[in-house]
């Protein structure tokens, strides 16, 4: 067969994909940190409506008089919005790149590949984004109300969750969020080469063979002295 | 064995291809997948038809030339290369769908043959070491800890077949790059260019239009050499150490 060459392709430009993944990991961690604080605040409803309202009031006066009223609240809002925009921008860029890398799809793909929650990152992420917009319209701006309008934040929560469809919306959102974090947190740790989840990797059923000791004895294992790492730039030794 | 094959036929790079069905009989279950295709081609030639083009070279699972997607799996249902896949992995009467690697950076040249020059350019960008010419150094002149040597050998098993790209839903070559970066990065000889290597190789990977990793793990599942996913962590850690090349 005569040598055939494919037409030259144009080089793709833009930020490195791995940098985009790092942006997603960092902004994702900001989101997780916020969720933990948010959850702590929400748990106040179990103490009682007064405790919940007091907490809601307190985050508006937190840091006074060093900060103006709602000062901390706005710092958090700006940080969250910036993280969200960056997270979605990086995800959208990666999504576009993935589609461009395989414009011709397979006739047949392996059944049941990957974890379903891992495959749900993109459309699941869109579902969460939709929920976040709804959630802000609901509890922050109060443009949308479930039940009646109340001056007390605790009363708004209690009214919302006395409607079955209010419960359903929030329950569905929590499931989507949980699945997103399941892959996102694991994947983030993996991307960054963090040892945080090394255990999970070692239990990786995909591959075990004699030469493969995963991260044990790897460059980040503190149990092993690393002359290799130490001699990074000593070219004279070679 | 009697089989119904559905094979991607495409005349030339820009041509529009299609799946074509071929019925084949008398296939030995001891023949390899490529021998089965050879048998099909003999029959096609006898009938005066164009044989199915596919890549192969060593046929012993070490060169990385062969590789097609069989029933939706790169290199088919076993953890091995297409040439080392045998027909005993299939049942009499099976329908087998055979497609080329699908990735825009790997354009189809003809039928099942794709152009994997993108991998060559990634290797050219950084998959090398500098070595002094002259007589070979003493074997013990540069000690390498056993654990590092083991991990380097493990990563060096990568034969550059491209199954990781073919299997990845994002069309990413992260496993291939991670294997090369880990292989050279675990050894003293790989240290001088270590930072430059990861920066250049990942930049070339992106320029080729390959996708990004989302940790689905399809690559490591498809890899005939079972390169583990942690080589991608290594690549990311090395790129971070190199300051993303900025």
Describe, in plain words, how this protein is organized in 3D:
The complex is a heterodimer of chains A (238) and B (246). Chain A has 238 residues and is mainly α. Chain A has a domain at 17-99 and 116-193. Chain A has 10 helices and no strands. The longest helix of chain A is centred in the middle third of the chain and has 31 residues, at 71-101. Chain A is elongated. Residues 199-238 of chain A have low confidence and may be disordered. By secondary structure, chain B is of the alpha+beta class. Chain B folds into 2 domains: 3-109, Ubiquitin-like (UB roll); 117-245, Orthogonal Bundle (Fumarate Reductase Iron-sulfur Protein, Chain B, domain 2), CATH 1.10.1060.10. In chain B, 34% of the residues lie in helices and 11% in strands. Chain B has helices spanning 33-46, 117-126, 146-156, 163-167, 174-185, 194-207, 218-222, 230-241; strands spanning 3-9, 18-24, 69-70, 73-74, 95-99, 108-110, 113-114. Chain B is elongated. The model of chain B has no long low-confidence stretch (mean pLDDT 95). Chains A and B meet through α1, α4 and α8 of A and α3, α6, α7 and α8 of B.
At CATH's second level, what is the architecture of the largest domain in chain B?
Orthogonal Bundle
Measured between the Cα atoms of the first and last residue of chain A, the distance is 45 Å
The separation of the N and C termini of chain B measures 58 Å
CATH-wise, what's the superfamily of the largest domain in chain B? Alpha-helical ferredoxin
Secondary-structure map with pairings?
The complex is a heterodimer of chains A (238) and B (246).
Chain A: H1 17-42, H2 44-47, H3 49-61, H4 71-101, H5 116-119, H6 121-140, H7 153-160, H8 164-191, H9 198-202, H10 227-230
Helix pairs in contact in A: 1-4, 1-8, 6-8
Chain B: E1 3-9, E2 18-24, H1 33-46, E3 69-70, E4 73-74, E5 95-99, E6 108-110, E7 113-114, H2 117-126, H3 146-156, H4 163-167, H5 174-185, H6 194-207, H7 218-222, H8 230-241
Parallel strand pairs in B: 1-5
Antiparallel strand pairs in B: 1-2, 3-4, 3-5, 6-7
